[in-house]
Write a structure and sequence with these properties.
The chain is α/β, with parallel strands linked by helices and 392 residues long. It is 40% helix and 15% strand.
């Protein structure tokens, strides 16, 4: 079989996990608990849906091609929000709107790399980043993290070669949940600047960071856009996953290269989704604060429920945003465990093997729980099932 771009990488992990459900029935007294995907299942706020309907009915331009880099008003609104939140200075010309944050990453990689280049990814990594690098012909250079799932800049520096083009970080992290300290993010920025690299900083989950205020100082640095490529998503904040609206902030010269990719792949971002994101940013900040508080409470519920799992040998490696990252105690690899959990416990989660290089021993002991769609009662039920597994 001919090797192609898509055959160079693995099957989409969430789709693979869903196939484990085929042929399995779940009794009424033990329904499936699905913690496999980090996406809200509830629809957007009713007022936001009404605004979307209004745009569809009353704004003829919303049904036509729009600017490749996104609606000017949305670019300006996001630039202003970033400037306020991070105490920096960002202009609309430094912002592009994309068809989701995954496309923002793909566009940035396409603008920064060519065949055979390298990008450093901390492990456990976000699998879609790894998949795109594979399909782009770019080598993913694994950077193992420490016991707290934090990457080490010194260790990253040792991995830099003449083919290295960027370092990619995700904070709050997917899959680990950990929030990278501000000093650590700054150290990676300085490392990238010293070596003429770009720092790709994916902050898809920044709206659910437990810290108040700016989580890092990068936007306040002079000429921040010469090193930083900032990635963001409206999907989680405003429940717009199906409308595919993300963003990228960096220097206008790089955005001119990004525009070539975006124009070729999608021509323009989803128009209705962009109007929704703009309306949400202008009208739903109070509601979003409540959503954040609820996620933080669910995070606290994970901490409250951990003693029962620790007693069975589980470890909590990382916790934050939508994720709990756990080490299991069983004498089997995590991919086998994850498959067995479906029929034997009514739980669908992702194994650590999906976030690690093939054969990595650490991934075989780890699992990811995406808990954002479980309330406290659901979290207690999940942890009760995990604490009472019949495995040894």
């Amino acid at each position: 079989m001919t090797q192609t771009r898509t055959r160079s990488t693995f099957a989409p992990p969430v789709m693979e996990a869903r196939r484990w459900l085929e042929g399995v029935s779940f009794p009424d007294d033990r329904p499936l608990i699905n913690v496999s995907q980090a996406a809200p299942v509830d629809p957007p706020h009713p007022d936001l849906r009404r605004a979307m309907a209004g745009a569809a009915l009353e704004n003829d331009a919303a049904h036509l091609y729009g600017p490749v880099l996104g609606l000017p008003d949305l670019r300006a609104e996001l630039a202003g929000q970033i400037s306020r939140h991070y105490h920096g200075h960002v202009t609309a010309e430094q912002v592009a709107i994309t068809s989701g944050c995954n496309q923002a990453f793909a566009a940035a990689i396409s603008a920064l790399t060519t065949q055979g280049d390298e990008v450093i990814l901390p492990t456990p990594w976000y699998f879609n980043h790894k998949m795109w690098l594979d399909m782009a012909g770019v080598q993913s250079v694994a950077l193992p993290t420490d016991a707290g799932l934090l990457p080490d800049p010194a260790r990253a520096e040792a991995l830099i070669t003449p083919r290295t083009r960027a370092i990619a970080l995700v904070t709050p992290n997917n899959p680990g949940g950990v929030e990278y300290p501000a000093d650590l993010v700054r150290d990676f920025h300085d490392l990238a600047a010293q070596h003429g690299l770009r720092l790709l900083l994916d902050e898809t989950y920044r709206d659910f960071d437990s810290r108040e205020g700016a989580p890092h100082p990068l936007f306040s640095l002079p000429d921040w856009d010469r090193v930083l490529v900032h990635l963001y998503s409206f999907s989680k904040a405003y429940r717009l996953t199906g409308h595919r609206v993300g963003a990228l902030a960096t220097d206008p010269a790089l955005l001119a290269e990004v525009e070539k990719f975006l124009d070729t792949v999608a021509i323009c971002p989803n128009q209705i989704g962009q109007h929704a994101a703009l309306w949400g940013m202008r009208h739903l900040q109070g509601w979003l604060a409540g959503e954040r508080a609820e996620i933080l409470d669910r995070r606290a519920a994970i901490s409250d429920a951990m003693p029962a799992l620790r007693a069975q040998g589980w470890e909590l490696l990382g916790l934050g945003a939508y994720f709990a990252y756990l080490a299991h105690p069983f004498d089997m690899p995590s991919d086998e465990l994850a498959r067995r959990l479906v029929p034997e416990a009514g739980v669908l989660l992702l194994p650590g093997t999906m976030f690690m290089p093939e054969g990595d021993a650490a991934g075989k002991r780890q699992v990811r729980v995406a808990f954002a769609n479980l309330d406290r009662a659901g979290i207690e039920l999940l942890f009760g099932r995990l604490a009472n597994l019949p495995f040894s």
